[in-house]
TrEMBL record:
Pfam families: PrmA (PF06325)
PROSITE patterns: N6_MTASE
Protein's name in the database: Methyltransferase
PANTHER family cross-referenced by the UniProt entry: HEMK METHYLTRANSFERASE (PTHR18895), MTRF1L RELEASE FACTOR GLUTAMINE METHYLTRANSFERASE (PTHR18895:SF74)
A GO MF term: nucleic acid binding
Species in which this protein is naturally found: Advenella faeciporci
GO biological process: methylation
Record InterPro entries: DNA_methylase_N6_adenine_CS (IPR002052), N5-glutamine_MTase (IPR050320), SAM-dependent_MTases_sf (IPR029063)
Length: 377
């Protein structure tokens, strides 16, 4: 069901469709604003629940958003000092709450997009191609500037691609599909020894299709990749065809396992057992570890004799107090599985070295593992 926003300007009533990829509800009221608005005034109105419909220069809107962000980040820095001695799990919950509040406030700066994905603002760039990859509207609609900038960034990622040496080329992530920017888990997949017999493989929750492509490059002859998200299915099919593996890899839209059995089944589920605050967070957060547990419980029924299941998982949740290693090992045991071998690697992304990050200690201790699982005799 589509939602709308309305406001009155010059005694004229306006009614326009509202769109939010994150599922955010439309603001309670709309205030038309322009270049005279300051960042402090904007944040005050945002705190009051007002959506700020921008009618000034487009580039000035971007500068205003940056100024609002700087002010919020300063407030967050003060809170970090205050909460630095809290329990790590409480710190994580406060961190998520702060991120959600930050996103809500910054999301109050709005842009109207006209039919044909045109923006009728001074110095507005041509965003037709970027918007056409995400939005399906034929009439005018309103989005947050923050979301629109995310769409633009995703368009550039998709156009330029992400170099992945293990895949033999570039992977092109679509908007809303998790990008393979953390190369350590790809290195694990590329180096772990394959089962003695490995003609077939399943890739559960394929995303961009990068894991399937690496397995195909390693010589697996038939691979079925699955994902429940339509965008992910389209993204995986694009990357697979672009790198020449469409005769080896089939992509199906489904939640978990395809029909039949395989010699190798890989899964890189969301790493943190928490509730996503938006659809875009589903690649990161797995409520109650539902996908992780589901993969383990159903794995034995889909493995060929002497087959292996490869679980790629960070232990960040353990360092945040969200899941214990004992929990994971017990779920593996309950599924009738045993650990053949575990391959570990330390992450090397920028946040590991960011000492200002509230979760720095947990990120610094993080290890990503590839668990090679087999059915118990």
């Amino acid at each position: 069901m589509s939602q709308t926003i309305s406001w009155q300007e010059n005694e004229i009533n306006h009614l326009v469709q509202w769109h939010s990829e994150s599922g955010a509800r439309p603001p309670r009221r709309i205030v038309p604003v322009n270049d005279t608005l300051t960042a402090d005034e904007a944040l005050k109105l945002a705190h009051e629940g007002a959506g700020l419909l921008w009618q000034g220069d487009y580039q000035n809107a971007r500068q205003l958003l940056q100024a609002m962000t700087r002010r919020l980040d300063k407030r967050t820095a003060r809170k970090k000092e205050k909460n630095s001695q809290e329990n790590i799990r409480d710190v994580f919950n406060l961190y998520r709450l702060g991120q959600a509040q930050r996103a809500r406030l910054l999301g109050m700066l709005l842009i109207r997009i006209e039919p044909g994905f045109n923006i009728a603002l001074r110095r507005a760039p041509d965003l037709q191609q970027a918007c056409a990859q995400v939005y399906a509207h034929t009439s005018a609609f309103v989005v947050s500037l923050r979301e629109l900038l995310g769409v633009i960034g995703a368009y550039e990622w998709r156009r330029n691609g992400v170099p992945v040496p293990q895949a033999g080329g570039k992977i092109h992530p679509f908007y809303g599909v998790f990008s393979p920017v953390r190369g350590e888990y790809l290195q694990l997949l590329d180096q772990a020894p394959l089962p003695e017999t490995c003609q077939t493989a399943f890739d559960i929750g394929t995303g961009t299709g990068v894991l399937s492509i690496i397995l195909a490059k390693r010589g697996v002859q038939r691979i079925v990749a699955t994902d429940m998200q339509e965008r992910a299915v389209e993204c995986a099919r694009f990357n697979i065809a672009n790198l020449g593996y469409e005769q080896v890899i089939t992509v199906e839209q489904r939640y978990f396992f395809p029909e039949g059995k395989a010699d190798l089944i890989v899964c890189n589920p969301p790493w943190l057992p928490a509730k996503p605050s938006s659809p875009l967070e589903q690649a990161v957060y797995d409520p109650d570890s539902a996908m992780l547990k589901g993969f383990l419980q159903n794995l034995p029924a889909h493995l060929n004799r002497n087959g292996q299941g490869w679980l790629i998982l960070s232990d960040l949740a353990e360092h945040l107090g969200l899941r214990s290693r004992e929990d994971l090992l017990e779920w593996i045991r309950q599924a009738g599985l045993t650990v053949l071998e575990r391959h570990d690697i330390k992450p090397h992304h920028a946040k590991v070295a960011d000492t200002t990050d509230l979760l720095h200690a947990a990120r610094k201790a993080e290890v990503t593992s590839l668990w090679r699982l087999v059915v118990q005799d």
